[in-house]
Design a protein that fits this description.
Blueprint lengths: L1 E4 L4 H11 L7 E5 L6 H4 L4 E4 L5 H8 L4 E4 L9 H14 L4 E7 L10 H13 L4 E7 L5 H5 L2 H4 L1 E5 L9 H13 L6 E5 L7 H12 L4 E5 L1 H10 L4 H15 L9 H6 L6 H10 L1
Helix pairs in contact: 1-8, 3-4, 4-5, 9-13, 10-11
């Protein structure tokens, strides 16, 4: 059995949908906080059990019988995420899981100024000490592009801090490839990059957007402190703005520049590119 956590979220839920296309439903389980939100999976024969990273006993029950467990990383900024991940890993081991797959982050290496990297580094270390086989899927940035590019369609400008090359990756591709790895014959040990094939900069994005729209989209490099001040004036708390700034700082330092072939290999096709994602954004 394959058990997926976070199955009512975007990535986990999409991974389960792809698993259902590959293996029988009775070989799939989900561990979710609210079982009512997973009723659509239960209706299709998926085993649905309640479990949360705060409750080791419930996790052990929800992981029972699993050969593999997919741990979707937590994202509660107020929680001790590393401790919660440790609880989940220990529960998976105690339940007899033979392999744990974990949704890590590209660039999860010491020195990366983007603060979530510390969580993923610590979690990968716990996995390495767990005594079972493990895979850390270091996913490329798959959030909406407007989160990092800003409102360029309205302003005609990508006015953000200095950046660097990033292989912006489609979440749907990540979910499909994750399911392919879980359900297939191939295994991958340790950390591996799960990214689109090409890393692009905001200069590249401005050119792509200009070509797609027929408008001239300018790239404006903002001073870090000016950008933070601008964010605050729009209502973003300063602490959050400075947290977001660390992502741009990491990008400019090259922490997200590497790409890897595994995503394309598992999909059996080329993943969606930044140009594809921008075109889809324009079309909506």
């Amino acid at each position: 059995m394959i058990v997926v956590t976070g199955a009512t979220g975007g990535l986990g839920g999409a991974a389960v949908e792809h698993l259902l296309e590959r293996i029988p439903a009775d070989r799939i389980g989900v561990s979710v906080r609210d079982t009512a939100k997973a009723q659509h999976f239960a209706d299709r024969g998926v085993r649905v059990r309640q479990g949360s990273y705060e409750d080791p006993a419930a996790l052990r029950d929800s992981f029972a019988g699993a050969e593999q467990v997919l741990l979707v990383s937590g994202n509660d900024p107020t929680a001790d995420i590393v401790s919660l991940h440790r609880t989940a890993i220990e529960a998976a081991v105690e339940a007899g899981s033979q392999r744990i797959l974990y949704t890590s982050q590209q660039g999860a290496v010491p020195g990366n100024p983007y603060r979530p990297s510390d969580i993923h580094i610590a979690t990968e270390a716990i996995l390495a000490d767990s005594g079972v086989a493990w895979t850390a899927l270091r996913n490329g940035a798959y959030g909406p592009l407007d989160q990092v590019l800003g409102p360029w369609q309205r302003t005609g400008e990508i006015a953000q801090p200095e950046d660097g090359p990033v292989p912006y990756t489609d979440r749907a591709d990540v979910a499909e490839a994750t399911a392919a790895l879980l359900a297939g014959d191939r295994t991958v040990d340790g950390p591996v990059d799960f990214t689109a094939p090409t890393a692009v900069t905001f200069d590249d994005a401005a050119k792509i957007a200009s070509d797609l729209t027929g408008r001239t989209i300018k790239r404006i490099v903002l001073d870090d402190e000016q950008w933070v001040a601008d964010q605050i004036t729009t209502g973003v708390p300063e602490q959050m703005a400075r947290f977001m700034l660390t992502w741009y700082q990491a990008a400019r330092a090259g922490y997200f520049a590497e790409t890897g072939p595994l995503l394309a290999e598992l999909l059996g096709r080329e993943p969606r590119t930044a140009a594809d994602r921008l075109a889809a954004q324009i079309a909506t």
